[in-house]
Amino acid sequence: MSATIRLTAATAVAAAVLSALATSPAAAVAAPALRMTPVGGHISSHHLVGGIRNSTSSNWAGYAATGTTFTSVSASWVQPAVSCTSKTTYSSFWIGIDGDGSNSVEQTGTEADCSSGRAVYSSWYEMYPAYPVNYSNAVSAGDHFTSTITRSGTSYTLTLTDTTKGWTKTTKKTQSGLSNASAEVIAEAPSSSSGVLPLSNFGTANFTNATANGQAIGNYSPDKIDMASGSTTKATTSALSGGENFSVAFNHS
């Protein structure tokens, strides 16, 4: 099994936005950073352990279910707090349909970036081939998020709720020709036209109640994905607890 990476062309724009955030304290609080995302995680290897496929990806860590057509995916997580240095780094946390071996994505989630030592938190959705869209709502480290994506035919509803701050964003889109062939709950190192970007030190991201088609994601013998570049492990994914709870731990940018 393999997945493809499709890269956006937003590098220069995102760099300008992050530069502005770094020099403006007010903007750093109010304005989300641009998200630069690939369509899928490039899964380079996998092997079976106890019915779970253990895989390696250059930009994904988490779980991806395949083997059927998906009509829903959902999960909850706590927005990680990033530890920033002088480097500009990126990380995102999301649920999605498609992207693993397909040429489309339907995703929504949160972002935790570092710009010249400053943490920048935001939220977004994406329906490829359109660029990702940032929500304007405030996001803070420690916020509790719940998210659901549902599909009825060619209609998609993407819902992201910050239960800590009390806001919900619901986006409805209609798009035909999508394969609906995978469901994922992922921590990601976003990509630009230059490739996978440096990963933010997010510590540990905790995901709970991860489901696909209304069932625990573990019922689909999903891929358990660790993020690695060559011999460097960038993030590791824990075993599933109860078929639907797991964590992703940062190792290296």
Automatic annotation (TrEMBL):
PANTHER family referenced in this protein's UniProt entry, alphabetically: ASPERGILLOPEPSIN, PUTAITVE (AFU_ORTHOLOGUE AFUA_7G01200) (PTHR37536:SF1), PUTATIVE (AFU_ORTHOLOGUE AFUA_3G02970)-RELATED (PTHR37536)
Hey, what's the signal peptide range on this chain? Answer: 1-22
Entry annotated with the keyword NADP: no
Looking up InterPro entries in the UniProt record yields:
ConA-like_dom_sf (IPR013320), Peptidase_G1 (IPR000250), Peptidase_G1_sf (IPR038656)
Query: What organism is recorded for this protein?
Result: Streptomyces graminearus
**Keywords on this record?**
Signal
**Protein name in the entry:** G1 family endopeptidase
Query: Which taxonomic lineage does the organism of this UniProt entry have?
Result: Bacteria, Bacillati, Actinomycetota, Actinomycetes, Kitasatosporales
